[in-house]
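Annex B.
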Amino acid sequence: MKRIAVLTSGGDAPGMNAAVRAVVRTAIYNNIDVYGVRRGFKGLIEGDLKKMNLSSVGDIIHKGGTILRSARCPEFKENPSCRELAIQLLNVFKIEGLVVIGGDGSFMGMKSLSDFGFPGIGIPGTIDNDLAYTDFTIGFDTAVNTALEAITNLRDTTSSHERVTIVEVMGRNCGDIALDAGLAGGAEAILVPEIGYNLKEISQKLINSNKRGKKQSIIVVAEGVGNLNEIANQIKELTDMDVRTTILGHVQRGGNPSAKDRILASEMGYHAVELLMEGKISRVVGVRENKIIDMNINEALAMQNKFNERRFEISKVLSI
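ATP-dependent 6-phosphofructokinase: predicted structure tokens.
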């Protein structure tokens, strides 16, 4: 293999730049030309490719976001002619393999090219941690720490005003960010899509805490649970307490990636290039039990997420 390309797609995640850097430098080390595709699959069908060198990825390992930019491209998914055009353009640039960094939607885009016979390798870059085949996705650890910092800061003002603060974190339909940030932040309750909740029980818990002198509480809610204001209003009615809400939003996608995300991205980017050099296609890179692994994309996407119910039970016990 003499020439490959790399793109970032979907929602940006801290550590994507570290992954791009690893792909570029590993390729160049092995005498492989590498091109960066700007703005994901949208840039791919527009032929927005640029040859990269060592300087192209200098001083980016610590930066959030993605230097290649990202964009949504629904037409790539919906229109087969777009995928055919993408392969034609890749052939024009004499690209022999593609590394895609993103979430499940990005992987489906890569899979559609692999179905046409074009070699592709996927690297999981999403803060949601919602890809079942891998223990962690790039960006998740940083997003948890960003949410944790916000929760810690909110606890100060929550305590000062003796109120209940409900914090909504991202994650789509996956509660991993809420669980880890809530556990680390000492939340009095954590609401996730994977496990049902009873607001009457939570409210009674808040009332009991208030009676024993604890005048402030933090509740962490994953965005896939439901309407935040409705939850807040019900708790207010049930407890007669001062209840406020905070939606952290896209702040969780930004910021310098943690050491864990930088290392994970570096190892995954390196392994992705190795796979292309070995002639393997339609595979995705992941991590299990602290070891970098890869598997067929169809098998990976067919796996069902397993929520860490033991960690959730621990959070409930420690929040009494």
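The radius of gyration is 22 Å. Residues 140-161 form the longest helix (22 residues). Further annotation is deferred to the next reporting cycle.
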